[in-house]
Amino acid sequence: MKRAITTIFLILALIATTLAVIAFGRGYRFNPGQKNLSSTGLLVVSSDPTGAQVWLDGNLKTATNNTLALSPGWYQVKITKEGFLSWEKKLRVQGEVVTETQTMLFPSTPSLSPLTTSGVIAPVLSPDGTKIVYAIPLKTGSTNEISVKAGLWVFNLNSQPLGFSRDPLLLAKSSSGLDFAQGTFAWSPDSKQILVSIGANRYLLEGEKTSTAVPLSWDGWKNLLKDWALLEKEKETEKMILLPPEMAKIATESAKIFAFSPDETKLLYQATASATLAQFLTPAPIATNSTPEVRILKPGATYIYDLKEDKNFEIQKDGALLSWFPSSRHLIAVESDKISLMEYDGTNKSTVYNGPFEKFVGPSPSGSKLLVLTSYNRPTGPQFSGMANLYSINLR
């Protein structure tokens, strides 16, 4: 009899412990004031870099890469770290729900490093974001001497093992009869070939190795453009399949698509006609982005649609040229005098570069750098001829 009572007690204790663990995991905590278990939500705060301070409603609570159990409600969350721009957003914590923040902090004074020194003409980033093609002119400076580096070059942005950078690759040398610096460049959709246009002449080159520029006839050029256009359309069609049917209809009939995010989970577009986005996910997902969304589209306005959460956010461009950052959670905003990074919902816009630069701006594949074309801090002297060079804005 005693053994049976002991066994029953152990079973009940095991059941009670299991229920307590389940309740704890679901966010229930003992409330001393009310002397009962109350539902809480979990706020998981992570940052890159780690070790940042977490502030809730103005009070320092913990460091990042930590989990906080909070009563349901709205909280003003601020993440700070010395030497980095702060991050701040109003977040909703719900009972028995995990809310996550994946914060990327950017340096308040990022350093600049030169990538080229011989002068760069017409840099173009490849569609896959891994390479930059550019030209070095035949003659530089007032000395009018022929440059030994004159030609068409490719800079591979992918880092080698141990973080070492790759050296630029000379694709083809320029000559008095073929000066690549006089041309314009276009990448193939697969980022493997480069089309060079110099006046009425067109040439095709391999984009990953030294090769001879192949001249194209008028028909050859037209057929190449047609093939590339078909390939680009196929790629866009594959991405459009990911969208809900009603959203795909709006995107094709009432919007101008700028670009899908690198991970293809978000769409940057501009509305060309009035439209209303229906709620595609029912019931609506929990613990989604708490930034207010906009589902009534206005012609001319710019939006980000999040496929995973079925959320649509209006982005205030303020005249900036927008493009995706490799994280797929940020946008690059290029204005006439500065470069900023903002989250995909339009919040936390931070200026990472304020200074002279020309039209080219592009990120490295890892997101650790932004590449700009500028004459910033260049040496003086006739050999430099006032030409711009590629610089990296180091974000890590």
Fold and architecture overview:
The protein is mainly β and 396 residues long. It is 14% helix and 41% strand. It has helices spanning 2-25, 218-240, 245-253; strands at residues 28-31, 36-39, 41-48, 53-56, 59-63, 66-70, 73-80, 87-93, 98-104, 111-114, 121-125, 131-136, 139-140, 145-146, 151-156, 169-173, 184-187, 193-198, 201-206, 214-216, 255-260, 266-271, 275-276, 296-297, 302-306, 311-315, 321-324, 330-334, 338-343, 350-354, 361-363, 369-374, 389-394. The strands form ten sheets. It has a four-stranded antiparallel sheet with strand order 5-4-7-8, with no helix packed on it. Strands 10-33-32-31 form a four-stranded antiparallel sheet, with no helix packed on it. Strands 11-12-15-16 form a four-stranded antiparallel sheet, with no helix packed on it. A hairpin with a 5-residue loop joins strand 31 (361-363) and strand 32. The longest helix is centred in the first third of the chain and has 24 residues, at 2-25. The radius of gyration is 27 Å and the shape is elongated. It starts with a helix and ends with a strand.
